[in-house]
Design brief:
Bound molecules: SN-glycerol-3-phosphate
CATH topology of the largest domain: TIM Barrel
Shape: globular
Distance between the termini: 39 Å
Radius of gyration: 20 Å
Largest sheet: 8 strands, parallel, barrel
Structural class: alpha/beta
């Protein structure tokens, strides 16, 4: 399961990419609204930092299929290869996906997915990813993890190449549950990513090893000081 950062704050992205094996960055209009200004200033800075090999997911906001397709082409023209255009999995969005698959090489992430059937149809349209909103589904009284797992099963059973990119998490347990079943990718906020391995027992264990080493070797010493 690939891990992506669901955020647009460049300082956070830099910090997390430095520490974790991150495959890319996902954004949405709400995330971009937290930065404000020209969205391409934000997105170009992210692209510049993560490089052209990493995934950058950017959402189109038009409502009509033809406009979504035009917006998608505009986004990819500016942000380059490995830019996935997020398109809501609604009827006009499906039409836009078909237009793009027929007329371009643009990569599509079907988004705003609350039901397995949205994901299945997006997969038939040629989307590379389908993004179920785990926590938002939970908040509606359904089981977001289960919906994401069902979507994965549908893709497998129908031999579809579309991958799940699970989104909208409220805790690291949800991420773990999806990791266990081999979901394609999860995109998580900086807070959730940092919390994936946050545990005082881990910190205590590492502190004890360092203290024991310094106890016989000297404070600040490491294996580099010996040969
Ligand atoms: O990009 C969609 C998804 O990440 C939304 O997450 O936390 O706003 O439900 P959230």
């Amino acid at each position: 399961m690939k891990l992506l950062i669901d955020d647009a704050h460049l300082d956070e992205i830099k910090k997390l990419c430095d520490l974790y094996p991150v495959a890319g960055v996902t954004t949405n209009p709400t995330i971009l609204s937290k930065i404000g200004g020209n969205p391409f200033d934000t997105l170009k800075a992210i692209r510049g930092f993560i490089g052209e090999e990493a995934e950058l997911h950017v959402q189109a906001v038009s409502r009509r299929a033809e406009d979504i397709a035009a917006e998608a082409k505009h986004i990819v023209n500016i942000l380059g290869a490995n830019t996935y255009v997020k398109i809501p999995a609604v009827p006009e969005g499906f039409k836009a996906m078909k237009i793009l698959v027929d007329t371009s090489e643009i990569l599509i992430t079907a988004t705003a997915i609350y039901t397995p059937m949205q994901a299945y149809i997006a997969g038939l349209c040629g989307a590379s990813y389908a993004a179920p909103y785990v926590n938002r589904i939970d908040n509606m009284g359904f089981d977001g993890i289960r919906v994401a797992q069902e979507i994965q099963k549908i893709f497998n059973a129908n031999r579809m190449e579309t991958e799940v990119i699970a989104a909208s998490f409220k805790n690291s347990q949800q991420v773990l549950e999806l990791c266990k079943c081999g979901i394609g990718a999860a995109t998580v906020s900086p807070e959730i990513l940092s919390a994936l391995v946050k545990n005082s027992a881990i910190d205590d264990a590492v502190d004890k090893f360092i203290a024991d080493f310094e106890g016989f070797a000297g404070v600040g010493k490491t294996m580099c000081d010996f040969r």
